[in-house]
Each structure stands twice: as C-alpha cells, then as structure tokens.
Amino acid sequence: MLQPKRTKYRKMQKGRIKGIAIRGIKLNFGAYGIVACEPGRITSNQIEATRVSLNRKIKQYGRLWIRIFPSIPITKKPAQVRMGQGKGAVDHWVARVKPNRVLFEISQSIPRPIALLALKSASHKLPVLTKIIEKESLGN
User: In the CATH scheme, what is the code of domain 32-76+88-135?
Assistant: First the structure.
C-alpha cells in the first residue's frame, strides 16, 4: 500500500477538485497510457489493484510507470461514536485526480493488442472514467 514516509501535517481537509490538470497530461515515459476523464479521489488500494492487474497482463514484455501518488490522508471515526470529540484517525490515503491527468503508462516494447487489453482491464479497477491514449509517433 502506497503512503508518504512523512508529512508536514497529519490530517487534511477534504477540499474540492476543480478545473482540469495542467501538469502530468502527456506521456513522458511510455507509449500507452490511462488518462482520467473526470475528477475524483483514487485510494492507494485502487492504485495497487490496477498495478497488479497491469503487471499480470504485460508480464515480461515491458515496463510500467505509475504517475500518481496517494499523499492526501482521509480520516474516519469508528462506528457507533457520537459527534464531537474532534477529527478521527487517519484511515487511508488518496490521490486527487483532475481530468486529463495521466495515471499509468506502459512501454512501447509491448505489442499493441496486449497493451490495449491490459489498459482496458486495468481501467475497470479505477473509480473514475478513463480513456486509453497512445503516443502520436506510433501512427494510429
């Protein structure tokens, strides 16, 4: 499970995810990628499930890059606890994702049909709508 080694503050407010992504919108490492189409929060467990799914499909063919990191703590109070008495303990970690953000990339050494199949099955593990993109130089 991904989480930061240390943070400046233990707990954060929810906040809103407004606008579209400016950074992380191009494929920098691989030839194929998954891009978010809507804003959302992706938990570290969902990132891990997607990573496992991709690794099973691409096997020894190529490389995988995870372009998001869960750095936002989400707190939760225990069940059957009355209101008040402060904010709950940190329960899990999430990554805030804006539309157009590249989430995962895989290398060009993977055959195109296998790459597209792997990315499609991996996108089912994510809570946001996604689309698959390719590098322009591949000549779609």
Answer: 3.90.1170.10
